[in-house]
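Obj: model holo form, ligand = heme C.
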Amino acid sequence: MRAIVMSMLGMAVAFAANAAGEGGAPGKAAAPAAKPAAAAAPAPAPAAPTAAAAAAPAAIDWKAMKKPERKKYMKEVVMPKMKELFMTVDAKKYSAADCTLCHKSTDNFKMPNPKLPKLPGDEAGFKALAEKKPEVVQFMATKVKPAMAALLNLPEYNPETKQGVVGCPSCHTMEKPKK
Ligand code: HEC
Ligand code: HEC
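Output (holo structure tokens):
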């Protein structure tokens, strides 16, 4: 358990470093998923996946979608899946979850959302956070982030390769790194 937490911590820390402004080059895309669909037989599941976390990437082009389409997609696809995922943590608390879970208000769907907890912008801060709230950091990094990436059909940020798009700052604002 300790080992898992520590490796998660590594992920979170590496992530924070990138979010702090190394600015990954989006043009240099990660190696394409070269495997043909035939090879899609699910690899041995690393951990008992939840329905939502195991979701295959959606066949959408998020970047090309206009606001009304995005809204519709959020409502019909993202919301039910993410609610289901959050309910695996606390069924009671999240059974009434709606758009405001992530967006806080519905006048403006801009993300990241400064009303969500602001995350530390440096390694020390992330380390402290991961030690203080290991379960939530782990849930966010290994469930919420990949599920959101799959739903948006965008690559998940990978701290090892520093490639990818969907990460903690897709939803949370980040503090300025302390010098
Ligand atoms: C689990 C978190 C989550 C929930 C719940 C959620 N959204 Fe979103 N939403 C996001 C994220 C993350 C983005 C930004 C995606 C991106 O472009 O990187 C987003 C983007 C959007 C956008 C596009 C905003 C823009 O500027 O283009 C709209 C519109 C939207 N959401 C509407 C909704 C609606 C309506 C609901 C409820 C039915 C909802 N969302 C529920 C996470 C969520
Ligand atoms: C798809 C959007 C999304 C992404 C991506 C995301 N989070 Fe969150 N996070 C949330 C929402 C929504 C909440 C608030 C949940 C609530 O209100 O109960 C939250 C809450 C938190 C909290 C506060 C929990 C508490 O109990 O105080 C922490 C810490 C956190 N996230 C860390 C992270 C980290 C670290 C990452 C990246 C590995 C991350 N989040 C990625 C949506 C997201």
